[in-house]
Amino acid sequence: MSIIKEITTNIRSGHYSAQQVISSYLEIISHYDSSINSVTRVLQNRALQSAKEIDNSISQGKDIGSLAGVPFGVKDLFDVKGEVTTAGSKFLSKNQPAKQDAEIIRRLCAAGAIPVATTNMDEFAYGFVTDNAHHGITHNPHDFSRFAGGSSGGSAAAVGGGLFPFALGSDTNGSIRVPASLCGVWGIRPTYGSIPMQGVYPFAESFDTIGPFCQTIEDLKTVFNVMAGKEESVFFPSIPSVKIAQIGGWFERDVDQDILDSIQEITGLFRYNKKIELQYIEQVRAASFLITASEGGKLHLPSLREQPLEYDPATRERLMAGGLLPVSTYLKAKEIQRWFEQYLARIFNDYDLLIAPVVGSVAPQIDNPVVMVNGNPVSARVNLGIYTQPLSMSHCPILSVPLNRDGKLPVGLQLIAKPHQEELLFAVGAMLEQKDIAKSSIIQRNQMK
């Protein structure tokens, strides 16, 4: 069931006012976020004023948009008019407030959506666990002793925890896909370059993308279409003819068997399915690391030289190391990226979809922050994106699908399509949701009294 459609239908019919809906969600945030720590600022005055304007428009018979009255959260690297864009840092918190909304927030608000909060993140989006030195750790809404994933963990945890119906995140090397998987919600990394980045604080220009987290695939499609400036359209019509390939090898190592079993169940739904291995994937991941480190480091190097103590020590060390990488190393990594894009394009001559895990297991424990790589425990903050980072080297859209886990902690899968084939991803996601293979793990709150 679409949460967004339920809200907008009730508001349009007069069953609830937009002000009642927003007030209810603000109360939910106030009561429940203390355990999750997903919200950094509540935008109460703006939200209530926007809701009042929507109610006035309804009373005057005006068009109120496809997202009218729907509250949403904003990762704290998007410009919100009148608020300081901190990107989770102490350093940027001294800046002047944004003079206007980021372009994507403007589009959502033009469709009637209402921002109600900014959300926690890894400082400068450099991490996979949302462990922020200034705002604290965001906890997984399904087990407070575990990480929510990152760097968009605040947004994913808030949606999974039922604090608002959708939220915005960014994905450089997996920062939408990883927290969506660990918090049990739908998320999408759109085709690189297809969504405007104006008003979004950068990290690594070669990979930066933005996208939504939602509670259902229908909601994800609705929000994406507004963000992308697209009209609503029917789902892809001929799913049985879709050719799908499981990515094996590297993408099977250190992966729990029940996740691999789910991949087999999904591929078995298609008449044409194969297993393939991607060549040189370890080198591709290494190149992704180097490009991210170099671009992120060079962006921050002037500030690091002047005010190094303003940075989280863990972030500072990685940014400084990246900023000092030789240009020749960066250029070689970019060559690998171009090769990988062409390589995947050839693979997509034979297949419509690729499928792989997002993570190898459920969310790591906060007091034991490790994941397994080649059978060895390594830092979760750096390595939770082991299966997402290589795929960021392409321009492909990637859907994070929450598996129906029957009471187990959430995990998700990646569905990868050719550039600008988001409609296919939504269609297959809808099929998986209809068959109860995919299902979000949402903590239901009593939205309206």
From TrEMBL:
This is AtzE family amidohydrolase. The lineage of its organism: Bacteria, Pseudomonadati, Pseudomonadota, Alphaproteobacteria, Acetobacterales. It comes from Commensalibacter nepenthis. Residues 21-425 form the Amidase domain. It comes from the Bacteria.
